[in-house]
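Support case: user asked for a sample of complex input and structure output to validate their parser. Sending the pair below.
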Amino acid sequence: MSKSPEVKLVNVPSPNFVPEKDADKPLVLEAAHLGIDFGGLVAVDEFNIGIGATEICGLIGPNGAGKTTIFNLLTKVYEPTRGTIMIGGRDTHNMTPVQVNQMGIARTFQNIRLFDKLTVEENVKIGLHNHIGYHTLAGVLRLPGYWKEEKKAHERALELLDIFGMADLADVKADSLPYGAQRRLEIVRALATGPKLLLLDEPAAGMNPSETEELMNNIRKIRDEFKIAILLIEHDMNLVMGICESIVVLNFGKIIAKGTPSQIQGNPQVIEAYLGTHRG
Amino acid sequence: MTSIKKASVNSKKAFLNYALVIVFYVVFQTLVSTKHITNSLKGQLIPITCYMIMAISLNLVVGISGELSLGHAGFMSIGAFTSVIVTSALTGLPGIAKLVVGIIVATVIAAIAGFLIGIPVLRLNGDYLAIVTLAFGEIIRNIITNLYVGIDGKGVHFSFLSPDGLGMEATGKIVVNGPQGALGYTKLATFTAAVVLLFIVLIVVQNLVNSRTGRAIMAIRDNRIAAESMGISPMKYKMLAFTVSAAMAGAAGAVYALNYSMIDPKKFDFNTSILILVFVVLGGIGNLTGSIIAAGVLVVLPELLRKFGDYRMLTYAVVLIFVMLVTNNEKLKGRIDTFFKKLRMKISKGGRKK
């Protein structure tokens, strides 16, 4: 198992804590008493989280615990039944996924959602959409702004693809990429939107150990280069324990434990949730 | 990694389409001027070009934006009748100026109609959206069937009741006469004007598709949720595609109507909408080259099949089915692709040997 980056977690106002290095910076995301019901089913309840400016936080839990539902709440795919979500100190009540992205949250999906019929480069350029500064009419008339901005976008897209060494795949259609590369492309595309917080939903799913190792390095690299926070859902405990500074454990829609990787590893409730109750 | 296909280069395709339109124009213009063309085909040149525009316009909605629209003839008829009214109202202008103003006003009015209809329609998805566009197409046709427009010294008069409801001066002239449609206006459209319009439409659509806006439209088509999470508003870009498409259909309708001296609202019914959809599907959804060729071939085909006599439309249907089967056969497509690949390799090898 990889060496845990053991960091000291410090308390911040609200029932949350962040790594010490982020203590003096405002939180990128703060969710309080978050909950959602689907009909009579309480899918998520009393979810509280605070994410520091450059924190890598893991969200783990058994299948069906509500992890992806939380991503959907944070990105406003679902409107929460209860509680508040603050992004950079602003309440996101009644906001749309589009607005949430523009406020600085980008995500990847558990079941890959690329723009299949478009090329790798076009996928990244769609991520860059709100950073390409020309109007529709300038595009149709091919005004100088179009050429300038398209050139900039092209260079930026290749630069971003290069993080994962994918620049040479720029002209390949997204759906003809191998599975692992599709997952990496989703991360690049999300990164292209210029987020302050990146939500990764099972980034290592379907990857072999060496690919996972590389992914871990890249996630750290992204955090360090872009100075952003990352919240990730992952089942691969090597990855979670290897790069996360704090971990939130979810079971049946509720937080059962929060803390540093070593605190989580030793937590009896977490072990019970994953392995079941000890009998006999 | 050899299995990875290089995606086609867009700009190359775009230039191919421009070349196709130019060749189409030059060939037929030469045939017309050297009188090597039958009168019936000559009379169809402008309608063919209009249908090509319609096919491109509908392809923007069906292929690029990914929404099935079954009411496109409605926008065509809005353009058609607008242009007739505008060109009739304009007096003292030369023909070409009337034509241009007629097309521009028709485009704007059709765009406005597209925008307004888009507001309720684009809130729906899939089959529901298709059915509602069908309904709006019929609503437009019914409105125009009951529309009376007259022009006199005081200006343009509108009524939905009867010609008498227009309250015109005795010298006034009825331009649109309800179910009879528009009668006795001046023919203004020329083949050259129609092709110029086709060229403009092609430039607009191709430049739009290969821009930030086009990528956003295609992103919404491919995966709406992912597009939203990239900060792209689906409603905004769907509306844009729908409105631009309606505008172009209006322009096509204008040229179509001004090619005759009379036009009947029944011309723009559900069948016409379906016919345009057939061009798009047959030419390949999202494939502009295909749209242009399919529109051209399918408008001319019934004429060419005249020798089948009573079995003409039956033959037409059989040809349609055959072409659909062939173009949708993956195996055959693969064979054709490899054939062209080999051919290209041979050509490039031959070129190197020189």
